[in-house]
């Protein structure tokens, strides 16, 4: 507690000019951190005012000890404590909160949010569920958060991510091997998760060693999504990409594609015959495919082949009434890339039973026995063994038509090279985010594809 409070006080002193500080302390250990911060700021010459939520004689353990070491006045935590404050320190509840805020706690949080002074949250903004990012009744809207040892899911999952502001992870003496010994299953998406499996090229590399990806096209006048995905797959390390196109759409596809090859395939039987060629190492179906029996049959043909399967969009929705038929054919390295609507249709039980997106994605991956990429502003990549990565590097500009098709294509290209499903999902989502930042404001899906070469150079 001494180390945590000292680290938080150091952050405040380092990042802000000296000003009156209002320290809001809760009745537990987070409040104990607040008393340390108050003491350290006061020793540094900062004007400090402390408000305690609850009775001082109700404090226990380390929190009571730290309160006794603070030699200033301790007031009741009320909106009046904030008068004249230039910075508000939120040490009310932190990670331990398990119920909605109400009464005096909710009132002080709302008063802090209405105050013009910036709030610095300790561990996590009070009122944010540390496991889900959900708001429990009300929550501090912080300019920054000082947390300890590692980030928590609530720092990365919305709306908690928006409320946490900039997150500083403070060192309080817990070493990396101690964290690793706990066998964590939640991660922030980062190249460290997939770098060991990233495709490596040399002068000996042949295009077939980089893999051959197939992308199943939709019918005439619905081919654009497949072309976006196919071009992205070729940009994202696949050696060759072939669009499997209905005959009546082949000329339409050929008019737009050059590096990507085209073969005619009018039904599931034709797709199965093409994928029987062992040189096809990955296959994507879903973008623009159409919902119905034909797409179900073609999806099952893809899953019956030796090619790694990436299922998106219509391929997923086509199984909404019979998800078990899909799950029975999936393999652990196959990748599903639903947005929330598609996810809810395919996995109604995990959505209904879960507490948040992270738990829902993990349960879905276990249920499907495949990798699930649950897309959104806080995309989650979940493996059937329980590992989950939360992406935090994607700009909001990626919420545009065709963006998901490009992501599916990137993952397909990486899977074609032999990357495992979870690592390809993590790498694809990360690369997609870098492309979005590189393309900048006003981007459209084609800009994301064009940004892939530059983004690859940054990995």
Description:
The chain is 39% helix and 16% strand. The protein is an alpha/beta fold and 459 residues long. The mean pLDDT is 95. The strands form 2 sheets. The protein has a 10-stranded mixed beta sheet with strand order 8-17-16-15-14-13-12-9-10-11, with helices on both faces. Strands 3-2-1-4-5-6-7 form a 7-stranded parallel beta sheet, covered by helices on one side. It folds into 2 domains: 2-182, YjeF N-terminal domain (Rossmann fold, 3-Layer(aba) Sandwich), CATH 3.40.50; 191-456, Ribokinase (UDP-N-acetylmuramoyl-L-alanine:D-glutamate ligase, 3-Layer(aba) Sandwich), CATH 3.40.1190.20. It is elongated. The protein is built from 20 helices and 17 strands. α1 (2-15) crosses α2 (29-43) and α8 packs across α17.
Quick one: CATH superfamily of the largest domain? Ribokinase
The coarse overall form would be elongated
Q: Which class best fits the helix and strand makeup? A: alpha/beta
What's the CATH C level of the largest domain? Alpha Beta
Number of domains: 2
Number of helices: 20
The overall pLDDT, averaged over residues, is: 95
What is the strand arrangement across the widest sheet?
A: 8-17-16-15-14-13-12-9-10-11
- Estimate the strand proportion: 15-25%
Amino- and carboxy-terminal Cα gap: 38 Å
Low-confidence stretches: none
Count of β-strands:
17
**CATH fold-level label of the largest domain:** UDP-N-acetylmuramoyl-L-alanine:D-glutamate ligase
The percentage helix is 25-40%
CATH architecture of the largest domain: 3-Layer(aba) Sandwich
Rg (C-alpha, Å): 26 Å
Major beta-sheet overview: 10 strands, mixed
């Amino acid at each position: 507690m001494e180390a945590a409070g000292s680290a938080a006080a150091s952050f405040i002193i380092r990042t802000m000019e000296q000003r009156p500080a209002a320290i809001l302390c809760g009745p537990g250990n987070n409040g104990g951190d607040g008393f340390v911060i108050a003491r350290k700021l006061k020793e540094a010459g900062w004007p400090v005012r402390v408000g305690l939520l609850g009775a001082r004689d109700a404090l226990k353990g380390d929190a009571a000890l730290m309160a006794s070491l603070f030699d200033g006045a301790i007031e009741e935590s009320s909106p009046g404590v904030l008068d004249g404050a230039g910075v508000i320190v939120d040490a009310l509840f932190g990670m331990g909160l398990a119920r909605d805020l109400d009464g005096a706690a909710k009132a002080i949080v709302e008063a802090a949010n209405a105050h013009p002074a910036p709030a610095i949250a300790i561990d996590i903004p009070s009122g944010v569920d540390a496991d889900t990012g959900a708001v429990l009744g009300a929550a501090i809207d912080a300019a920054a958060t000082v947390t300890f040892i590692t980030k928590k899911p609530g720092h990365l999952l919305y709306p908690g991510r928006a409320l946490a502001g900039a997150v500083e992870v403070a060192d309080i003496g817990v070493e990396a091997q101690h964290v690793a010994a706990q066998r964590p299953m939640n991660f922030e998406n980062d190249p460290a998760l997939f770098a060991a499996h990233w495709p490596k090229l040399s002068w000996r590399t042949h295009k077939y060693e980089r893999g051959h990806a197939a992308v199943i096209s939709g019918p005439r006048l619905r081919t654009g999504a497949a072309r976006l995905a196919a071009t992205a797959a070729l940009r994202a390390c696949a050696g060759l990409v072939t669009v499997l196109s209905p005959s009546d759409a082949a000329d339409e596809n050929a008019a737009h594609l050059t590096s990507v090859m085209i073969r005619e395939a009018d039904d599931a039987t034709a797709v199965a015959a093409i994928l029987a060629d062992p040189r096809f190492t990955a296959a994507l179906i879903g973008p623009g495919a159409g919902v119905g029996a034909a797409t179900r049959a073609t999806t099952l043909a893809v899953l019956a082949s030796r090619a790694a399967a990436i299922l998106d969009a219509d391929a997923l929705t086509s199984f909404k009434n019979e998800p078990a038929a899909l799950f029975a054919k999936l393999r652990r390295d196959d990748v599903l890339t639903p947005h929330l609507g598609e996810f809810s249709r395919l996995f109604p039980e995990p959505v209904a039973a879960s507490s948040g997106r992270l738990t829902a994605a993990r349960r879905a991956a276990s249920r499907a026995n495949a990798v699930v990429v649950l897309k959104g502003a806080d995309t989650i990549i979940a493996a059937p063994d329980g590992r989950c990565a939360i992406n935090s590097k994607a700009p909001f500009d990626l919420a545009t038509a065709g963006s998901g098709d490009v992501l599916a294509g990137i993952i397909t290209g990486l899977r074609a090279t032999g990357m495992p499903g979870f690592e390809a999902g993590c790498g694809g989502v990360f690369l997609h985010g870098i492309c979005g930042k590189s393309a900048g404001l006003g981007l459209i899906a084609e800009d994301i594809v064009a940004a892939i070469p530059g983004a690859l150079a940054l990995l």
